[in-house]
Design brief:
Layout lengths: L6 H5 L7 H15 L8 H17 L2 H10 L22 H12 L17 E7 L1 H6 L1 E12 L15 E2 L8 E8 L2 E8 L8 E2 L12 E12 L8 E4 L15 E7 L6 E3 L2 E9 H6 L1 E7 L2 E7 L8 E4 L16 E8 L6 H13 L20 H10 L2
Parallel strand pairs: 1-9, 11-15
Antiparallel strand pairs: 2-7, 3-6, 4-5, 8-9, 10-11, 12-13, 14-15
Helix pairs in contact: 2-3, 2-5
Length: about 400
């Protein structure tokens, strides 16, 4: 028989670990190796048994003290259960409740009585333009709003009657089920199916709300969309969600913002990107061009000899930060040299003359000299384009 591993090593904790750390470590091991999650996997089953055995000892102060003093020898000869332990007396409900709650979206299992709980959040979406996302805007939304029924006051019962305590859960809103497993009796706490967790049942329902406790009406609400909001982000409006349960607070309204694309700009976080066409004359000689930004057109001076693909930075012309309104990103513009088409014979001759005067070699019959094998600049590319006209 293989030698047993150290219990602290099994759970991955130190010998000075607190009870909370031991419980957390076992929960992680149980989530990883539980047989219900890995049906038929013998290795996972053995590792789960090993972790449960370690937890059974280390979570019990007396057993842990004995183990720290004598090791595994402290429990030799003990009957029952995996590794000589009897798990039937252990309440593992909170541990397993956490495990399966995490996997299947349920809440944490506990024996707490039913109390006030916050209502669910409601989600809506609104579409705005690229520019509205940059500078912020206001939108008016219409949506269904559940308000407390004025007839029954939210208790769901017909006037003159009252909700009664649920007989299945005795008003706790929870039912406890026990099942026998390989490791003993496991206790599982779930929402009562009769009362839906409220702890109360209504025999005579309110005729106005039909036993729901609320009435639905259409409401309009103006929503402030902050400057700099990005696609998919939400604006939260407090207490415009579902009604609370048993006197709990309302949920919130979450407005998801859908930002339309732009023909002129692209956005990456707080920076904006665009392209601007410039003429071959401006690229070669330099000069002023007009660039479109989200703030309006600006004049920018292009340096002589600018190559296509050159990127310029317009500082502070990007997107405002939602965390600090005083900060804005930048606008990056890629310059693209616009090669002319449909030139007249005179225009072509003029450009070839210019190339000759500037030391070019593409005007020679038969192609370029060995100098043209070097990296091509703007004028080289321009002449290639002209030859194709």
């Amino acid at each position: 028989m293989a030698e047993k591993r150290d219990y602290y090593e099994v759970l991955g904790v130190s010998k000075t670990a607190t009870d909370a750390e031991i419980k957390k470590a076992f929960r992680q091991q149980a989530k990883k190796y539980h047989p219900d999650i890995h049906p038929g996997d013998k290795e996972c089953e053995e590792k789960f048994k090993e972790a449960q055995e370690a937890y059974a000892v280390l979570s019990d102060p007396d057993k842990r003290r004995q183990y720290d003093q004598f090791g595994h020898a402290a429990f030799d000869g003990t009957g029952g259960g995996a590794g000589g332990f009897d798990f039937s007396g252990m309440d593992m409900g909170d541990i397993f409740g956490d495990i399966f709650g995490d996997f299947f979206g349920g809440g944490r299992s506990s024996g707490r009585r039913n109390g006030p709980a916050q209502g669910a959040n409601v989600r809506l979406s609104v579409r705005i333009s690229f520019e509205e996302a940059i500078f912020g805007c206001t939108k008016e939304l219409e949506f269904n709003y559940k308000e407390t029924c004025s007839t029954c006051g939210g208790n769901r019962a017909k006037p003159g009657t009252s909700p009664e305590t649920c007989t299945q859960c005795n008003g706790t809103g929870k039912v406890v089920r026990q099942s026998q497993s390989l490791f003993g009796v496991v206790q599982n706490v779930t929402t009562c199916p009769s009362c839906g967790g409220s702890g109360k049942v209504v025999k005579d329902k309110c005729p106005t709300c039909h036993g729901t406790g609320y009435n639905t009406k259409k409401v309009r609400k103006t929503v402030e969309i902050p400057a700099g909001i990005d696609n998919g982000q939400c604006v939260r409006i407090r207490e415009y969600g579902e009604p609370g349960i048993n006197g709990g607070p309302r949920g919130d309204l979450l407005v998801e913002v859908i930002v339309s694309g732009s023909r002129d700009f692209e956005r990456q976080d707080v920076n904006i990107f665009s392209k601007a066409s410039i003429s071959y004359a401006i690229a070669a000689l330099g000069g002023d061009i007009r660039i479109k930004t989200v703030d309006g057109d600006i004049i920018y001076t292009v340096a002589p000899g600018t190559q296509t693909g050159t990127r310029i930075r317009l500082k502070g012309k990007g997107v405002p930060s939602t965390r600090n309104k005083a900060i804005r990103g930048d606008h990056y513009v890629t310059l693209v040299v616009n090669t002319p088409t449909g030139l007249s014979r005179e225009a072509k001759e003029a450009l070839k003359k210019f190339d000759e005067l500037s030391g070019g070699s593409l005007t020679k019959e038969g192609g370029a000299s060995t100098d043209s094998k070097k990296k091509k600049g703007f004028m080289d590319k321009l002449k290639e384009s002209l030859d194709d006209l």
